Request: fold
Amino acid sequence: MLAKRIIPCLDVKNGRTVKGVNFVGLTDVGDPVELGARYAAEGADELVYLDISASLEGRNTFAQLVSRIADRLNIPFTVGGGISSIDDASRLLDAGADKITINSSAVRRPELISEIATRYGSQFVVVAIDARLTDGVWQVTTHGGSRLSDRELFTWAKQSEDMGAGEIMFTSMNHDGTREGYPCETFARLADTVSIPIIASGGAGSVKDIADVLTEGRADAALAASIFHYGEISIAELKRQLAAQSIPVRL
Reply:
Protein backbone atom coordinates (compact mmCIF):
# COMPACT_ATOMS: atom_id res chain seq x y z
CA MET A 1 0.00 0.00 0.00
CA LEU A 2 1.28 3.45 -0.89
CA ALA A 3 2.21 5.67 2.02
CA LYS A 4 -0.30 8.35 2.94
CA ARG A 5 1.03 11.90 2.60
CA ILE A 6 0.96 14.75 5.12
CA ILE A 7 0.95 18.15 3.42
CA PRO A 8 1.20 21.48 5.26
CA CYS A 9 -0.45 24.37 3.41
CA LEU A 10 1.04 27.87 3.48
CA ASP A 11 -0.99 30.89 2.36
CA VAL A 12 1.32 33.59 1.02
CA LYS A 13 0.61 37.29 0.72
CA ASN A 14 3.27 39.65 -0.63
CA GLY A 15 6.04 37.20 0.16
CA ARG A 16 5.01 36.29 3.72
CA THR A 17 3.13 33.32 5.18
CA VAL A 18 -0.20 34.43 6.64
CA LYS A 19 -3.09 32.73 8.40
CA GLY A 20 -6.66 33.87 8.84
CA VAL A 21 -10.23 32.72 8.41
CA ASN A 22 -11.43 33.01 4.79
CA PHE A 23 -8.54 35.41 4.15
CA VAL A 24 -9.87 37.82 6.82
CA GLY A 25 -7.94 38.88 9.92
CA LEU A 26 -4.63 37.75 8.45
CA THR A 27 -1.68 37.41 10.77
CA ASP A 28 1.94 36.94 9.75
CA VAL A 29 3.19 33.49 10.75
CA GLY A 30 6.65 33.58 9.18
CA ASP A 31 8.90 33.47 6.16
CA PRO A 32 7.54 30.89 3.69
CA VAL A 33 10.95 29.54 2.76
CA GLU A 34 12.09 29.09 6.37
CA LEU A 35 8.71 27.67 7.42
CA GLY A 36 8.73 25.27 4.49
CA ALA A 37 12.26 24.14 5.31
CA ARG A 38 11.19 23.50 8.91
CA TYR A 39 8.23 21.41 7.83
CA ALA A 40 10.45 19.45 5.42
CA ALA A 41 12.86 18.73 8.27
CA GLU A 42 9.95 17.62 10.46
CA GLY A 43 8.91 15.04 7.87
CA ALA A 44 6.35 16.72 5.61
CA ASP A 45 5.91 14.73 2.41
CA GLU A 46 4.99 17.73 0.28
CA LEU A 47 4.02 21.38 0.70
CA VAL A 48 1.33 23.54 -0.88
CA TYR A 49 1.88 27.29 -1.28
CA LEU A 50 -1.16 29.39 -2.20
CA ASP A 51 -0.68 32.96 -3.41
CA ILE A 52 -3.50 35.10 -2.02
CA SER A 53 -2.04 38.38 -3.33
CA ALA A 54 -4.42 39.73 -5.95
CA SER A 55 -2.15 42.27 -7.68
CA LEU A 56 0.25 41.73 -10.54
CA GLU A 57 3.01 42.96 -8.25
CA GLY A 58 2.06 40.22 -5.80
CA ARG A 59 2.25 37.58 -8.53
CA ASN A 60 5.72 38.71 -9.57
CA THR A 61 6.78 38.52 -5.93
CA PHE A 62 5.32 35.01 -5.75
CA ALA A 63 7.23 33.81 -8.84
CA GLN A 64 10.47 35.07 -7.27
CA LEU A 65 9.52 33.31 -4.04
CA VAL A 66 8.94 30.03 -5.89
CA SER A 67 12.53 30.19 -7.17
CA ARG A 68 13.79 30.67 -3.60
CA ILE A 69 11.69 27.77 -2.36
CA ALA A 70 12.94 25.49 -5.15
CA ASP A 71 16.55 26.33 -4.26
CA ARG A 72 16.01 25.49 -0.59
CA LEU A 73 13.55 22.59 -0.38
CA ASN A 74 14.27 18.92 -1.01
CA ILE A 75 10.61 17.80 -1.05
CA PRO A 76 7.96 18.38 -3.75
CA PHE A 77 5.84 21.50 -3.54
CA THR A 78 2.66 22.64 -5.27
CA VAL A 79 1.76 26.26 -5.95
CA GLY A 80 -1.53 27.92 -6.77
CA GLY A 81 -3.64 31.02 -6.49
CA GLY A 82 -4.92 33.05 -9.42
CA ILE A 83 -3.55 30.75 -12.14
CA SER A 84 -5.85 31.40 -15.08
CA SER A 85 -3.73 30.68 -18.16
CA ILE A 86 -1.05 28.37 -19.48
CA ASP A 87 1.38 31.30 -19.19
CA ASP A 88 0.59 31.68 -15.47
CA ALA A 89 1.23 27.99 -14.94
CA SER A 90 4.41 28.02 -17.02
CA ARG A 91 5.87 30.95 -15.07
CA LEU A 92 5.56 29.02 -11.79
CA LEU A 93 6.57 25.59 -13.09
CA ASP A 94 9.56 27.07 -14.87
CA ALA A 95 10.52 28.82 -11.61
CA GLY A 96 10.82 25.41 -9.95
CA ALA A 97 7.39 24.35 -8.65
CA ASP A 98 6.71 20.61 -8.88
CA LYS A 99 2.96 20.99 -9.46
CA ILE A 100 0.37 23.72 -9.85
CA THR A 101 -3.17 23.78 -8.52
CA ILE A 102 -6.09 25.42 -10.29
CA ASN A 103 -9.62 25.99 -9.04
CA SER A 104 -11.98 28.76 -10.18
CA SER A 105 -10.21 29.16 -13.52
CA ALA A 106 -10.71 25.45 -14.30
CA VAL A 107 -14.43 25.68 -13.50
CA ARG A 108 -14.69 28.70 -15.79
CA ARG A 109 -12.64 27.12 -18.59
CA PRO A 110 -12.02 23.37 -18.18
CA GLU A 111 -9.75 23.34 -21.24
CA LEU A 112 -7.06 24.89 -19.05
CA ILE A 113 -6.60 21.49 -17.38
CA SER A 114 -5.87 19.85 -20.72
CA GLU A 115 -3.60 22.67 -21.87
CA ILE A 116 -1.34 22.39 -18.83
CA ALA A 117 -1.43 18.57 -18.81
CA THR A 118 -0.57 18.42 -22.51
CA ARG A 119 2.43 20.73 -22.14
CA TYR A 120 3.81 19.42 -18.83
CA GLY A 121 2.06 16.14 -18.00
CA SER A 122 -0.88 15.21 -15.76
CA GLN A 123 1.43 14.75 -12.79
CA PHE A 124 1.92 18.53 -12.74
CA VAL A 125 -1.81 19.38 -12.48
CA VAL A 126 -3.82 19.39 -9.24
CA VAL A 127 -7.46 20.45 -9.58
CA ALA A 128 -8.74 21.95 -6.34
CA ILE A 129 -12.48 21.60 -5.79
CA ASP A 130 -14.34 23.60 -3.15
CA ALA A 131 -17.89 22.28 -2.77
CA ARG A 132 -20.83 23.01 -0.49
CA LEU A 133 -23.57 20.53 0.47
CA THR A 134 -26.85 22.24 -0.40
CA ASP A 135 -30.17 20.35 -0.27
CA GLY A 136 -28.35 17.03 -0.56
CA VAL A 137 -26.23 18.06 -3.54
CA TRP A 138 -22.52 18.86 -3.41
CA GLN A 139 -22.37 22.06 -5.45
CA VAL A 140 -18.97 23.23 -6.65
CA THR A 141 -18.12 26.78 -5.59
CA THR A 142 -15.59 29.31 -6.85
CA HIS A 143 -13.81 32.41 -5.54
CA GLY A 144 -12.93 30.89 -2.17
CA GLY A 145 -16.34 29.30 -1.71
CA SER A 146 -18.24 32.55 -2.14
CA ARG A 147 -19.96 31.75 -5.45
CA LEU A 148 -22.00 28.69 -6.38
CA SER A 149 -21.40 27.22 -9.83
CA ASP A 150 -23.65 24.90 -11.83
CA ARG A 151 -21.25 21.98 -11.37
CA GLU A 152 -21.64 19.00 -9.04
CA LEU A 153 -18.69 17.59 -7.10
CA PHE A 154 -18.50 14.01 -8.39
CA THR A 155 -19.27 14.84 -12.02
CA TRP A 156 -16.73 17.67 -12.01
CA ALA A 157 -14.05 15.52 -10.35
CA LYS A 158 -14.48 12.85 -13.02
CA GLN A 159 -14.45 15.44 -15.81
CA SER A 160 -11.27 16.96 -14.34
CA GLU A 161 -9.62 13.54 -14.35
CA ASP A 162 -10.72 12.91 -17.94
CA MET A 163 -9.26 16.27 -19.01
CA GLY A 164 -5.86 15.47 -17.54
CA ALA A 165 -5.81 16.27 -13.83
CA GLY A 166 -3.26 14.20 -11.94
CA GLU A 167 -4.78 14.78 -8.49
CA ILE A 168 -7.94 16.19 -6.90
CA MET A 169 -7.75 18.39 -3.80
CA PHE A 170 -11.25 18.52 -2.30
CA THR A 171 -12.40 20.95 0.38
CA SER A 172 -15.87 20.80 1.93
CA MET A 173 -16.94 24.39 2.52
CA ASN A 174 -19.35 23.06 5.16
CA HIS A 175 -16.41 21.75 7.18
CA ASP A 176 -13.61 24.17 6.32
CA GLY A 177 -12.47 26.12 9.36
CA THR A 178 -14.66 24.16 11.79
CA ARG A 179 -11.77 21.92 12.93
CA GLU A 180 -14.41 19.22 13.47
CA GLY A 181 -13.23 16.71 10.91
CA TYR A 182 -13.86 15.81 7.29
CA PRO A 183 -16.97 14.38 5.55
CA CYS A 184 -15.44 10.91 5.28
CA GLU A 185 -18.40 9.30 3.44
CA THR A 186 -18.09 11.95 0.73
CA PHE A 187 -14.36 11.36 0.39
CA ALA A 188 -14.93 7.61 0.13
CA ARG A 189 -17.49 8.17 -2.63
CA LEU A 190 -15.04 10.45 -4.40
CA ALA A 191 -12.43 7.69 -4.22
CA ASP A 192 -14.92 5.40 -6.00
CA THR A 193 -15.52 8.07 -8.66
CA VAL A 194 -11.94 8.82 -9.75
CA SER A 195 -8.79 6.74 -10.01
CA ILE A 196 -6.33 9.58 -9.35
CA PRO A 197 -5.07 10.51 -5.85
CA ILE A 198 -7.28 12.62 -3.58
CA ILE A 199 -5.98 15.24 -1.15
CA ALA A 200 -8.29 16.01 1.79
CA SER A 201 -8.38 19.68 2.73
CA GLY A 202 -10.26 21.69 5.35
CA GLY A 203 -11.57 20.49 8.70
CA ALA A 204 -8.51 19.03 10.42
CA GLY A 205 -8.60 19.71 14.14
CA SER A 206 -7.02 16.58 15.59
CA VAL A 207 -5.01 13.47 14.81
CA LYS A 208 -8.27 11.49 14.81
CA ASP A 209 -9.72 13.72 12.07
CA ILE A 210 -6.71 13.07 9.86
CA ALA A 211 -6.65 9.35 10.66
CA ASP A 212 -10.36 9.05 9.82
CA VAL A 213 -10.11 10.72 6.41
CA LEU A 214 -7.06 8.61 5.48
CA THR A 215 -8.85 5.37 6.43
CA GLU A 216 -12.66 5.70 6.30
CA GLY A 217 -12.40 8.50 3.74
CA ARG A 218 -9.74 6.67 1.68
CA ALA A 219 -7.94 9.93 0.93
CA ASP A 220 -4.37 9.61 -0.28
CA ALA A 221 -3.14 12.71 1.54
CA ALA A 222 -4.22 15.15 4.24
CA LEU A 223 -3.56 18.87 3.95
CA ALA A 224 -3.60 21.12 7.03
CA ALA A 225 -2.43 24.56 8.10
CA SER A 226 -3.37 25.87 11.54
CA ILE A 227 -2.49 22.77 13.54
CA PHE A 228 1.07 23.00 12.18
CA HIS A 229 1.49 26.80 12.07
CA TYR A 230 0.46 27.21 15.70
CA GLY A 231 2.47 24.24 16.93
CA GLU A 232 -0.47 22.18 18.12
CA ILE A 233 1.26 19.05 16.87
CA SER A 234 4.47 18.43 14.98
CA ILE A 235 4.43 16.53 11.72
CA ALA A 236 6.76 13.93 13.20
CA GLU A 237 4.43 13.31 16.16
CA LEU A 238 1.38 13.20 13.89
CA LYS A 239 3.05 10.57 11.75
CA ARG A 240 4.08 8.54 14.79
CA GLN A 241 0.49 8.47 16.00
CA LEU A 242 -0.81 7.53 12.54
CA ALA A 243 1.77 4.75 12.24
CA ALA A 244 0.68 3.44 15.65
CA GLN A 245 -2.78 3.00 14.09
CA SER A 246 -1.26 0.99 11.23
CA ILE A 247 -1.75 3.83 8.75
CA PRO A 248 1.14 3.68 6.25
CA VAL A 249 3.22 6.88 6.43
CA ARG A 250 6.86 7.71 5.73
CA LEU A 251 8.67 8.09 9.05
